[in-house]
């Protein structure tokens, strides 16, 4: 299986909910409205999943354009002020360019005196083929025991639709008046392989450009492009950043035959393996000086939060198919997944990577590895720590080959304050819909647009997932449970009500 | 640049030269005959190079068949008893099969009382494209200052033609009567990537099958599928063998996202890098216990032989483009190239190997590495040494991942006695044509068919190269010098005369 990095997120900025007294908010009525429309919601999701909007495949670009058009039409039909914003072109390896899918923005109402939220999401998907190991046709949404299987169902089409249904549910004008400025944007439509988690793509530029126009009234940003950790609903308050490195060792001017030249040259691959082996200990300890020292210490309060999280280690192990994890207790495991840095060696470019055998001495090899960033690490400092360390390790080998270390991505982590009113509102909404306290969780991956929004708009962000823990994002047999889709829509309805009652700054 | 393993060699079994008194052998007359035909020889080479008989490319298979047909026709026109021997099919990765090019055998005369030699060579070639960095069209033989540039010119079409010219030169019946049983065979037409140096292919089976028929009268085997070390002519008396290993580390049941899972699993790539780093020291010392101990000690006599070889370290360095070699003196360098084992790590399958970046934790990674074999190493013992060592190193890591080490090729080295009459005859022929003593050299690469011939027929083998040291085999801008081609033909003529006078066993 190939994993693509999440190219992005779908962002929806939402709201301008008139603050009406709580007792006039008829949640039950809205909830029944959602229940009575659920077949229609599933059908819309089926229509959307049927569009193979795989942004990693340039040949599917017309499907991506069609997906954005469908999204825009739907929002327009609902009375939104919709725009398709051009964010430029994508350069292909052969030097040709292809248009990036336009960003869809939609605004429902406008009133600077009311709370205005922006919801972000995406409607492009990861690649999927039946022969990859899907039990059903990936682009034909299939309901099996209440699970809706299809590529993009959970990542991120159903959450986007849940927000759209929320707008629709409020529109028939129940007990409260609503105005939603709604933004649907397609994110960076490129897979990690081409344009990684830097977030430095057309979308970033668009956010900066529209800072004082489209985004001017936005008070909060909501991202629903993640998932729960277990069957318990969750609010996500942090993501790790990522520093991605290339370490290139160059020797002879061309590849050499290992029979003819083996024994005469210091092989670049031997050097590269040697320095890579100094990054991590067998037990996963990062050996680069300074990295571990920069990590914010785990507070007692935080420890307690981890302790309270619902998480079953055994089912996690069986899900990924390993007999033993890096840590055997919940707190250590979750902490190292979310709030400690990790080093992963992804692979080596330039060496022989095909099946079978080949007797080559590769002349130039480039290792790809990355270090997930957490508070209080600083990518600029990490860059120096890693390069200084590798150069010094390499120097000890006294190799005539040339080492070049470069950091090609330096994405910062994002961390929210779980005591912020946005999160308090989230807890209240979860409590109303699911009658439980949400897990407060983090995401081990990187969602660079969160940081971009925060930095550009200066506004607070909440990540509010509705996807299940076992939805199989980026994997075969992705699904969205009907339960999560429908109850998730109700959660968004309840959440907007709570947000509307926050004190306006 | 991609290097393909020499798929093979062309083998020519030659001779039944009537032993006539030396003084009746008019070398000068034959030499003039060759000189006067050199334009014709170059034209034939041009015709042969024009056939893109790239055996690594299945789409070029018709060209390979045509090349064998052309070869057969030429030998038939010369009066040889020619056969095209079917050696079966090649299985492609998709399960389909494609016919292997037939082996051409040719016999010129037959007389068990006379010396009969078998010459082996090949007429398939490595891949070549103008855009790889060729200065001329690779399949259009181009004469620049006496160098004939073209794919396959040196490897191995000109040497094969030189043997054919040798037969032709003798045929007009000069002072000696000749009978040549001549065999032209295409070797394993598969690149290393598919069917490596095991030699276990259709050709091996054919040699075994025809042991008591075609090969029954053969006294000696001559291979001219190698090159000189410098401008001085050379005889080759040894090749290294090769043990090729796969080391597979398997962890999770599928690739994982490094953000989402990094920090929770012991990554197979970290384990693999860790064990690979224990194979070789930074200075190239093999760390696997027992390997170095098995190597035959360098005798004083051998040391002296190396000392006498003409070899310029500086031009070798500039040829491969490195500032420093593994050893700075000639004897150490040549000895480690030819008569000491080396470990090369070729690459890793299953990890990310493309350009750009990808945030994957590969679930299963397979390192490919090989150890060149020299006397007195035994592939079966090496297999045990390597696997025992890697399993013990891996066990110390206490990883939950699974390691599997397999040896997929175990080709033995080949070593001839330079005091053998075949070599004495070679020295005399070189002396006659070039008026110098030949360098006695080895080949760092592996020519498994040499060992097959030796093992199956029990006959002695000599490797007699005529290609230049800078012919660029397997590389861009391959060439054969006109000088080497023409004087090489004369060398073969002189050599057959010498062989004819060896004492018949």
TrEMBL record, chains A, B:
Which GO molecular-function terms appear in the entry?
Answer: dipeptidase activity; metal ion binding
Where in the sequence is the signal peptide annotated? 1-19
What residue stretches are annotated with the Peptidase M20 dimerisation domain? 238-394
CDD domains, alphabetized: M20_dipept_like_CNDP
The cross-references to InterPro entries, in alphabetical order and at most eight, read: Cyt/Met_Dipeptidase (IPR051458), Peptidase_M20 (IPR002933), Peptidase_M20_dimer (IPR011650)
Supply the alphabetized keyword list: Hydrolase, Metal-binding, Protease, Signal
Q: Does the keyword Signal apply?
A: yes
A Pfam family? M20_dimer
Instruction: Give the UniProt record's GO annotations in the biological process aspect.
Output: proteolysis
Protein name as it appears in the record: Peptidase M20 dimerisation domain-containing protein
Q: Which organism is it from?
A: Oncorhynchus tshawytscha
Q: What does the record give as the organism's lineage?
A: Eukaryota, Metazoa, Chordata, Craniata, Vertebrata
């Amino acid at each position: 299986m190939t994993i693509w990095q999440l190219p992005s997120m779908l962002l929806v900025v939402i709201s301008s909910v008139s603050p009406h007294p709580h007792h006039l908010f008829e949640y039950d009525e809205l909830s029944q409205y959602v229940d009575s429309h659920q077949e229609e919601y599933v059908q819309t999701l089926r229509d959307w999943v049927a569009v193979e909007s795989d942004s990693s495949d340039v040949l599917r670009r017309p499907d991506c354009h069609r997906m954005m058009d469908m999204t825009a039409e739907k929002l327009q039909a609902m009375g939104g002020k919709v725009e398709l914003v051009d964010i430029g072109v994508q350069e292909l390896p052969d030097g040709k360019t292809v248009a990036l899918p336009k960003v869809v923005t939609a605004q429902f109402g406008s009133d600077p005196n009311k709370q205005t939220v922006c919801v972000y999401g995406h409607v492009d998907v990861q690649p999927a083929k039946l022969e990859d190991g899907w039990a059903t046709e990936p682009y034909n949404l299939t309901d099996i025991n209440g699970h809706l299987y299809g590529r993009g169902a959970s990542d991120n089409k159903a959450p986007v639709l849940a927000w759209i249904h929320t707008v629709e549910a409020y529109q028939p004008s129940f007990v409260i008046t609503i105005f939603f400025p709604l933004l649907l944007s397609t994110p960076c439509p490129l897979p990690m392989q081409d344009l990684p988690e830097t977030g430095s793509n057309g979308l970033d530029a668009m956010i900066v450009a529209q800072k004082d126009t489209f985004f001017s009234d936005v008070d909060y940003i909501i991202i629903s492009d993640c998932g729960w950790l277990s069957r318990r609903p969750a609010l996500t308050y942090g993501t790790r950043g990522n520093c991605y490195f290339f370490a290139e060792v160059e020797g002879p001017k061309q590849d050499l035959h290992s029979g003819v030249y083996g024994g005469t040259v210091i092989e670049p691959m031997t050097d590269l393996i040697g320095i890579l082996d100094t990054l991590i200990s067998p037990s996963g300890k990062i050996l680069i000086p300074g990295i571990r020292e920069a990590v914010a210490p785990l507070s007692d309060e935080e420890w307690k939060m981890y302790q309270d999280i619902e998480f079953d280690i055994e089912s996690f192990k069986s899900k990924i198919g390993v007999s033993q994890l890096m840590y055997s207790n919940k707190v250590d495991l979750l902490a190292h997944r979310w709030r400690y840095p990790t080093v992963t060696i992804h692979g080596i470019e330039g060496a022989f990577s095909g099946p079978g055998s080949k007797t080559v001495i590769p002349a130039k090899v480039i290792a790809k590895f990355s270090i997930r960033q957490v508070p209080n690490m600083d990518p600029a400092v990490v860059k120096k720590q890693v390069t200084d360390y590798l150069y010094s390790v390499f120097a000890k080998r006294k190799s005539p080959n040339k080492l070049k270390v470069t950091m090609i991505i330096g994405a910062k982590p994002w961390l929210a304050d779980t005591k912020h009113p946005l999160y308090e509102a989230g807890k209240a909404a979860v409590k109303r819909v699911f009658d439980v306290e949400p897990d407060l969780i983090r995401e081990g991956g990187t969602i660079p647009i969160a940081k971009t929004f925060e930095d550009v708009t200066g506004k607070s962000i909440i990540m509010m997932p509705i996807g299940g823990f076992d939805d199989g994002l980026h994997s075969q047999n992705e699904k969205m449970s009907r339960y999560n889709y429908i109850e998730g829509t109700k959660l968004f309805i309840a959440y907007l009500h709570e947000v509307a009652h926050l004190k306006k700054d």
